[in-house]
Design a protein that fits this description.
By secondary structure, this protein is mainly α. About 70% of the residues lie in helices and about 0% in strands. The chain is elongated, with a radius of gyration of 28 Å. The mean pLDDT is about 80. It comes from Fopius arisanus.
Length: about 210
Amino acid sequence: MANFEVLRKNIKNHLAHCLKSSDVSEFHKKCVTVCGNEIERKSGVDQALRDTLLSVLSENLTETVGALESYVTLTIELCRTDLASPSMPVMLLSDMFDAMTLDKCEQLFTYVENNVTVWKEDLFFNSCKNHLLRMCNDLLRRLSRSQQTVFCGRILLFLAKFFPFSERSGVNIVSEFNVDNYTEFGNDKAANNESEQGKNFARKRRILPQKT
């Protein structure tokens, strides 16, 4: 545990420099130098990313979401170089949404929508799909369906674009149906009688011309 704590701190320091320079290749070299074991190195990078997110959030909560978007983009690049777990970008996004107001969440969700092709890549899809679904459901629980209808619709449309038609979560596997819903259909004969009664009433009131 002590060794992992030292590893986490070292990687966190290197990550701070990487944030300023955006040099992923240099960060990769330093991480390999710090730890030769791939599994331990990836765990250390994952933890360092979440720790650093606290600082990024505290510095940018009152500003635009541009810095947060850049942070997630950097994480995506780290995943592509096999330095971080593929689920980390969405996990960081989920933490961001939990810490922000709904107005900021709506701004940041634009980034999620614009990168739907990234989340559908083979590298990310299987690792991220459950986290993305949970993140969107958490957002929907916070929103008012009557007041934030546009944002709710954007989330549902994103899920429709992200998940394929064959996805089990969108299929009624157990064949459960809403049998409580009952719709009464009117009788054509009764409807005609009501229409004729309405016409007779209108003639008495001299609204319609009398029959000849």
